[in-house]
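BUG: 3D viewer hangs when loading the predicted structure for this chain

Environment: internal workstation, default settings.
Expected: structure renders.
Actual: progress bar stalls at 90%.

Input used:
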Amino acid sequence: MDENDFAVLTSYAPIIFMVVLFYLLLYRPQKKQQKKQQDMLSRLQKGTKVVTRGGILGVVDEVKENTVMLEVAKGVSIEIAKSMIGTDYENKEELEQEQQKAAEAYKASQAKDK
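Structure tokens produced before the viewer hung:
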């Protein structure tokens, strides 16, 4: 390998580095989050407490192929797309922890932008 080959190789190093960095920082965590979301959606069943991405809290009344009937008040059910379910929770403490994590992430992103 002579100097010319080495120069060509080092010119590609930043591109290779950026691809690896992109994979590690963006692609892989996003895939993990998607898998976690899909697992949660596949576990949905009647009686599961959920929060939609719009902030509506309710209990799953019926699970269909692409939608979910969500009871938001006694005797009041709405039909929403499964993809709009943000998270499920067991009790109020778990929900509050999720909300706290989301608030901290938002504050961190705001501080980063400044």
